[in-house]
Design goal:
Blueprint: H1 9-23, H2 25-44, E1 46-47, E2 56-57, H3 64-76, H4 84-101, H5 109-122, H6 125-146, H7 154-234, H8 239-264, H9 286-295, E3 300-304, H10 313-333, E4 340-347, E5 350-357, H11 373-383, E6 387-392, E7 398-405, H12 410-417
Parallel strand pairs: 3-4
Antiparallel strand pairs: 1-2, 4-5, 5-7, 6-7
Helix pairs in contact: 2-3, 3-4, 4-5, 4-6, 5-6, 5-7, 6-7, 7-8, 7-10, 7-11, 9-10, 10-11
């Protein structure tokens, strides 16, 4: 775990001025220009060709023209961040004037070196190459042509070396800054992508839970309603049949509570009690599902050719829920004398689930009525990449057919396994 602590009070006294200078770049440039001016003035009092080949200080004094050139060059450096190329041109021109008019020349080229570094650190590499070569050629050539020392003197070679190092150092700083900015931008983009992916998965999980809740509640409440109506109708004349109907009501309500508990358990927080670990319903429990409808008074026939085939968990759950919701709609809308047929057939790499009934067409559910049953089925099938068709049959009744691919996307399999 990373622990961030405040810097010591004594250290803050030293870091505060630098922080203030970084927040005020013009003041920092002014301080740099003053430091360059001090270095140029100090170097103007030195003779590079002193005794024993060492520089000798205070053996010469700069004239008024040299002092003016150094003041102008240092003053121009204050604006090096705002206008780097014009500042380089100005300091280069002042350096050329110093080499032409001074003997020995004033060290105005120091300001040109700083300006060249600024251009290299704030422009692109082609511009750095062009401007750097031009500055290096002009300053070195002027020093060789107008200086009193031989063209191969150490001072002339020093101008060549310092301008080259300034351009290289500025380009390295620019490359490092660009690299850091690219890393920061990639990190921010990855953070945004991670947040968007998390929100997308949360939305998909909410939709899936809403579909499961709707399927569970609609199916079992419909069965409870039918069985309760049967029990109320035969309570006085046939108490044995009423008792059987009430037992079915109790079984349906218990099953509804168990499934609701398993679904709501997904919404618990990490500190809540552990959610049930029962497997999600699938076609393995299709016979028990159909028995609940048969006990409720709906004759259902089943035809299956997929008992020995393996199915992805998402497809297995979707097929179960589609059959459950379709039979619930038949129970509610198809009338008291309706019959239903369910078929589960594997065709190549797909599985076809069909639910037919012979109810009255006027009593069939309307696909545009705004209910959530058919909408939930369509969403389940679309999420798996399949197709769903639902509508009245010719001659009466209603037909629901879903074609589900047996090869789902990898992320969906991972979600279902999780």
């Amino acid at each position: 775990m990373l622990v961030v602590t405040a810097p010591p009070a004594g250290l803050d006294r030293f870091t505060h001025p630098w922080r203030w200078l970084r927040e005020h770049p013009l003041a920092l440039d002014a301080a740099l220009a003053f430091a360059v001016l001090v270095c140029m003035v100090t170097a103007s009092f030195a003779d590079p060709n002193g005794p024993h080949g060492r520089p000798a200080f205070f053996t010469r004094t700069p004239d008024a023209g040299s002092v003016l050139l150094m003041l102008l060059a240092a003053g121009v450096l204050v604006f090096r961040r705002r206008r780097p190329v014009p500042v380089l041109a100005a300091t280069g021109a002042l350096s050329v004037v110093g080499y032409v008019t001074g003997d020995p020349p004033a060290p105005v080229a120091m300001s040109a070196v700083i300006a060249l570094y600024t251009v290299a650190s704030r422009t692109d590499r082609p511009t750095t190459w062009r401007v750097g070569l031009l500055t290096m050629t002009v300053l070195t050539g002027t020093a060789m042509l107008f200086g009193s020392a031989p063209w191969y003197s150490q001072e002339n070679l020093g101008i060549f070396a310092w301008t080259g190092m300034a351009a290289a150092a500025g380009d390295a700083v620019r490359s490092r800054r660009a690299f850091i900015d690219a890393i920061r931008e990639r990190a921010e983009r990855a953070e945004r992508t991670r947040d968007e992916e998390a929100r997308r998965r949360v939305a998909e999980e909410r939709l899936r839970i809403a579909r499961d809740l709707h399927d569970v509640v609609a199916h079992h409440i419909a069965l409870v309603n039918v069985q309760a109506g049967v029990a109320a109708h035969v309570m006085d004349k046939r108490p044995d049949q009423a008792k059987e109907a009430l037992s079915h009501v109790r079984a349906a309500s218990r099953s509804a509570l168990n499934e609701l508990r398993a679904t709501v358990g997904l919404l618990r927080q990490s500190g809540d009690p552990e959610a049930p670990t029962e497997p999600a319903p699938g076609l393995a429990g299709l016979d028990e599902l159909l028995d609940t409808f048969r006990h409720a008074g709906l004759p259902v026939e089943l035809a299956r050719t997929d008992r020995d085939s393996e199915r992805p968990a998402a497809v297995d759950l979707a097929a179960y829920r589609i059959i459950q919701e379709s039979l619930t709609n038949v129970q509610k809308h198809a009338g008291p004398d309706a019959k239903a047929e369910v078929s589960v057939v594997r065709v190549g790499r797909t599985m076809e689930v069909t639910v037919l009934d012979n109810g009255v067409p006027a009593a069939a559910p309307d696909t545009d009525s705004g209910g959530h049953g058919l909408l939930g089925m369509r969403e389940r099938v679309s999420a798996l990449g399949g197709t769903l068709s639902a509508g009245p049959r010719y001659g009466g009744g209603f037909r629901v057919q879903a074609i589900l691919p047996l090869k789902t996307r990898p992320d969906e399999d991972e979600d279902e396994d999780a």
